[in-house]
Write the structure tokens for this entry.
Amino acid sequence: MKIHEYQAKQLFKDYGINVPNSVLCEKKEDIDACIEQIGTPCVIKAQVHSGARGKSGGVKIADNYDSAIEAAHKILGMELIFKQAGIKFVNKILIEEEVNIKKEIYLCVTFDRNCEEIVLIISKEGGMDIEEVSQLYPEKIFRVPIKDFFNSNAVLNSLELGEEITEKLSEIIILLYKLVIEKDALQVEINPLAITVDDNLVALDAKIVFDDNALYKHNDIMLLKDEAEENPYELKAQKLGLNYVKLKGRIGCMVNGAGLAMTTMDIIKYAGKKAANFLDVGGGASSEKIEQAFKLLVSDKDVSAIFINIFGGILRCDYLAEGINNAARTLNIELPIIIRMEGTNKEQGISILNNSGLKFKIVQDLNEAIEVIRKI
Ligand code: GDP
Ligand code: MN
């Protein structure tokens, strides 16, 4: 789960990391008072779950009161377009005192799944062009297991920032690590961490990603979820207790069991198509749950065909058939639906579907499924 910059900065503050004074503004009529509170020069920042706000017009530095008011009115309510995150509507802005930057550091503590370690990523070339730096000058970005940082001064010393700054930087890294461990974060990033003209370190930006699977332990973090930022289909699925991930393809799939769901996505790919989602309805899904899962699939406008691949072990095939039947009856579906079922009460399931009067293509096995999907 991601959170907003203003929320991440509050957490930083709680942990003792310097952040600029700021105030959150959600209504146009509050803009004047917010800017008066912070004073000028100030920075107006769109609060959306995306990086690269600076480059897309979502961050403006204003030198005086009038330009601050103008920038705030422009950014609050605007639509920002991002390469990665798509279109984001700005519901909230952060109005922040301006900091005089001498140098911008990139700092990140994150999980590296390849080496199965928490790693520290750090660069003296922080700021808005960090992506270009990583492509053109990868040697300027240091990536080391966090234990190397704890074991030796070599990593920080190699940055040659001077004793005082290095000491402060070291403290911040320790605090970020503490935050990662205590709050089950997958990533904490500060870009830029400003070295100010008077040699203080201030986090000008803040990004935190939490581990969804550990959220149940952190009620305080769970409260920070902004539902407007979540994928609406994934949000719906979460509420229904389904394991669902939205993907970029066109074949919606419904499967029971994560392993079978992975296999099913492989099959779709093998047939030359792409899955629109991962959906595991779970082992013992009821027909009501199947019905809801099916409705969720067809509500996704990207889905052009549905492949249902069920192994009836704990889940009975007749429950599955009833659920699909009930959903399809109320929905008036035009999409091709391919079903492969195997296992407990398969015959009853097939007969329910055959008697439903709806158009399902029931395939005998996975080979036939591949042939049918290939021709869609
Ligand atoms: P991002 O583009 O979404 O990563 O947004 P950031 O919060 O990083 O802001 C973009 C850029 O604005 C930063 O890289 C800084 O260069 C600049 N910026 C942000 N806050 C301040 C500030 O207080 N003073 C100055 N001079 N620049 C700032
Ligand atoms: Mn940034």
User: Anything to note?
Assistant: The chain has three domains: 1-19+100-230, 21-98, 231-374. The mean pLDDT is 94. The first strand starts at residue 22 and ends at 25. Residues 163-183 form the longest helix (21 residues).
